[in-house]
Specification:
InterPro entries: Cit_transptr-like_dom (IPR004680), DASS-Related_Transporters (IPR051679), RCK_C (IPR006037), RCK_C_sf (IPR036721)
GO biological process, one term: potassium ion transport
Protein name: SLC13 family permease
Structural class: alpha+beta
Subcellular location: Membrane
Organism: Oleiagrimonas citrea
Number of helices: 27
Largest sheet: 9 strands, antiparallel
Distance between the termini: 35 Å
Strand content: 5-15%
Length: 589
Amino acid sequence: MSWQAWATVAIIVVTMALFASERVRIDVVALMALAALAVLGIVTPAEALSGFSNEATVTVAAMFALSLGIERSGVLEPLARLLTRIRKPWLLTLAIMLVIAPLGAFIKNIALVATFLPLALRVCSQTRTSPSRVLMPMAYAAQMGGVCTLIGTSSNLLADSLARDGGLPGFNVFEFTGLGALLAVAGITYIMLIGRWMLPRESNLPEQENEEIGKYVTELRVTEKSSLLDQTIAEAVLGENHGVYPLELLRGERRMWSPRSQKLQVDDVLLVRGSWDKIETFRNRAHLENAPEARYARGASETPRVVAEVMVAPASPIEGHRLGETALNWRYDATVLAIHRRGHILRDKLSNVSLAVGDVLMVLVDEAAMPRLRADENLIVLSQRESVRPIPRKAVIAVAILAAVVLVSGLKLLPIPIAAVCGAAAMALTGCFGTKDVYEGMDWKIIVLLGAILPLGTAIEKTGLSHTVVEGAMSLVGYHSPLGALLMVYLLTALLTELMGHNPAVVLMVGIAISVAHAIGVSAQPFVVAVAFAAATSFATPVGYPTNTMVYYAGGYRFTDFMKMGIPLIGLFCALSMWLIPLFWPFHP
């Protein structure tokens, strides 16, 4: 191989390692790979920037806007309210999957899961059912629905765009629907008959943490009236008497070196951990103040305030930022009272905590600001009062616009990117979302990732690396076994998806899949379809797909729970795909 090919291999390996480690944001990793390819001269400047004008990138951006319009218009709220009437956990699981899977074919699956996650948690609480019985199937159903149409997931659009670049005719909007629907039916059936018995019956948080120590870390300030004055923490026996566990004692800006032996003074701040109900009971009995609330207290004329639990969503721009940098205070006039981070005991002042995906914040906020907080895609409201009823007219308009986009693109009256852009403009003009909402609701990480990672596929082709990989792979499966080659492509894509995400896996594999098909003299379409479906159905880890990450934190799962449930499901999808893909897209048309 040439030095350019070896350099491309090195860039791919480093990129995969960074994607898998999650130490650097995915869009930054993609930009680093793009910069390396351009600086080394492996791709030209025009090729380096071509990803940002690619049809897939533009279409994904427009579909984000359409999905935002559907979500903000309140179309999903009637369905959500209907599901709250279900009291049997197995029936709730089935109903949610049957609702989410069809919607996932047209609406961004992260938005779907974010909408239905609070109601699933609420019903689980009312029926005393562990959320772990419901949330993972919900995340899987969103992925199953996404593969049913070309516009259901960004990886489908990306596979189509790369296929067209490789000289293939591409796919229409509903070309994946037949195979996707069959796989979704098989997947839902598997989950209901077999998979649900593999789900944990209780939350997999450690028992002591779940029942004794509780979830939240908060700051409590000692007042002049406090019954703890002049007592040591050891003398107060907070854990035994109140179920609240002290972590640190802060005096001014100092941490006391031996907190349990220090006598408590006025304005001392106790960093404590416990369930929120026990913390509140203890605070009232001991005449303490919640330190963050006191810090931002307002006058007596303030509007009614409510307490809400919100979770930091995947791909949220506030990830890695401290509380003071999140704009929660000035945007919603909200005060973060406590933080829960699964698997970690926080020992820093709340203002010094860098937020991570899955962190649950106990927030004190104006009741009037709750609709805006629910609409913020960077946060998922887990506990909430009844939502404000949406304006029916906007909901009807939003659905009509989305249906028009699907119809126009499905009939090939307009190309998909143009139809999607027109639909986004129509939603903005009709007020389905605000003029600023579309920019705030856009998942810019994914858009930058797509634009920056696409030239990597160009580099793989230009350097001859794909030819080298294909030759090595075909020596294993042989040149006379198209089904064996298809299986190899599917499994390799599934593995790469779990390691680095679905979009980068598609970029790496589509060119290789087309080359494999050409090497054995068969149609390349079945191989591209295998890449698209393997990449869009990532069930085996909580980090392979954003919906998995969302329920991983909220459901209290272990990493191995996804493997037990997801690996057999991937095997089922793979086996069915090997049978069905050649039927829908023959090797020899």
